[in-house]
Amino acid sequence: MMSYFMVDIESDGPIPGDFSMICFGAVLVNEELDTTFYGKLKPVSEKFNPDALAVSGFSREETMSFDDPGKVMTEFEEWIKENSKGRPIFISDNNGFDWMFICWYFHHFTGKNPFGYSSRRLSDLYCGLEKDTFAQWKHLRKTEHTHHPVDDAKGNAEVLLYMKKEMGLKIALK
Fold first, then answer.
1. What is the value of pTM for the model shown?
2. Is 137 helix (H, G, I), strand (E, B) or coil?
3. Does the pLDDT value for residue 174 go beyond 70?
4. Which single residue of 3, 22, 60, 172 has CA 20 to 30 Å from 160?
């Protein structure tokens, strides 16, 4: 069995290391969607893009008082372990972006990534079920997309559950 974790991140720039992950949210994908994690991380560099940061809703000054990234990533790793049955699977709306930040932060601050070396992209699963590489799915979210990462992860998890119930996606959930 595997446990799926829908993850969403907000950052102050396009790549980890040079820029910072400001906050992230994760939800264990199950029927209730009530097991969540939220972390706010102090910047790891002096660089930031004001437009990218604005998406998060936080000012640079606010982010400077956020939690130590090493502490947050250690807490996230423990939360994943506590809420996993079998292998934890990372899934997100845009795993090319979200994954690179989570993976970099895990390796940089804890030395390993509990998700391993792979991730899943929600859009690709939906497009595959529809047999249309341009299929649109965001209208299937129930939770409003607010750029608060827990809300956004929850909305995306709702779509994954829809795909399981209504479209026949074969996925075993905890």
1. 0.96
2. coil
3. no
4. 22
